[in-house]
Specification:
Glucose Permease (Domain IIA); about 280 residues; globular; about 10% helix; 3 helices; binds zinc ion; about 35% strand; 21 strands; five-stranded mixed β-sheet; 2 domains; eight-stranded antiparallel β-sheet; mainly beta; Immunoglobulin-like
């Protein structure tokens, strides 16, 4: 717990150090990093009496002014925030977003039935994905994310965020997560505290699936679990076991897939996780 607590604290301190560069008309004392990157979680701070909008959403501001938002895999080179001071004056602040290179792999000769699911299966997948998407809309005032993120399992990193496969010429959805390969039955532990907002042992594509909500729209999704040991609504602490690694659903081998979201924006867990001890 203590080891993982430093990351976002350090990010907040870094934002505070940049305060000297704030423009004179910035009545809201917005501390925004000078730059970020695609897939990143951005941690910033503002006078809590002010309002900040990003991507059509009024951001939740903590009592001390801390707030977060996420940049998607394909985020544009500049992210714009609209800030309104208590007097109602609005201004725009921008954040440079560095592009990243994504690994793209072309695979041909794949049987077409594995590329395009049958209509009844496709309908089931769509329903299940809508349930998970609904869980990710939660916007709680809890600030569990502020204690940092620890690795949710021991094991080798076997897949990274953003990579993409092109099967028989058709680009598939990019890989939106971090894969940790480990034997089936290896404990899966919460990278940060939160509330379990989704738990199902048997979805079609993702098998045993758990979503942990960390507050302010940030959530972690874990899939392919061989065991689900938590229930929806349950409080879980950082480091607490919530299930076991497996290869349920569509998986080529036992691994823990960890996805991170800011609402429906998929972030790169590899950018926030603490290094292994
Ligand atoms: Zn994965």
């Amino acid at each position: 717990m203590l080891r993982a607590a430093g990351l976002l604290v350090a990010a907040l301190a870094g934002a505070a150090a940049a305060r000297g560069a704030v423009a004179a008309d910035d009545a809201c004392a917005l501390d925004l990093p000078t730059a970020s990157t695609q897939g990143a979680l951005v941690v910033a701070r503002v006078d809590p009496r002010c309002r900040v909008d990003y991507a059509g959403r009024a951001l939740r501001i903590a009592d001390d002014g801390a707030f977060v938002f996420g940049l998607g895999r394909d985020a544009h080179a500049m992210a714009a925030l609209t800030v309104r001071d208590p007097a109602g004056h609005a201004y725009t602040r921008t954040l440079a977003v560095a592009p990243r290179e994504w690994r793209v792999e072309k695979v041909d000769g794949v049987p077409q039935s594995t590329v395009t699911p049958a209509p009844d299966i496709a309908a089931r997948i769509a329903l299940e994905q809508a349930r998970v998407a609904q869980a990710r809309q939660r916007d709680d005032a809890r600030e569990d994310f502020r204690f940092g993120f620890a690795r949710p399992a021991k094991g080798r990193i076997s897949g990274v965020y953003g990579s993409q496969r092109i099967l028989n010429g058709t680009p598939k959805d990019p890989h939106f997560g971090l894969d940790i390969a480990a034997a089936a039955g290896t404990p899966a532990i919460a990278p940060a505290a939160g509330i379990v907002s989704f738990a199902d042992p048997a979805l079609y594509l993702t098998g045993g699936t758990v979503v942990i909500d960390h507050g302010h729209g940030l959530s972690s999704t874990f899939i392919h679990l061989s065991r689900v040991d938590v229930d929806v609504g349950q409080r879980i602490e950082q480091g607490q076991r919530f299930g076991a690694i497996g290869m349920t659903g569509r998986a080529s081998g036992p691994h823990l897939h960890w996805g991170m979201n800011w609402f429906d924006v998929r972030l790169d867990p590899g950018l926030v996780v603490q290094p292994p001890p």
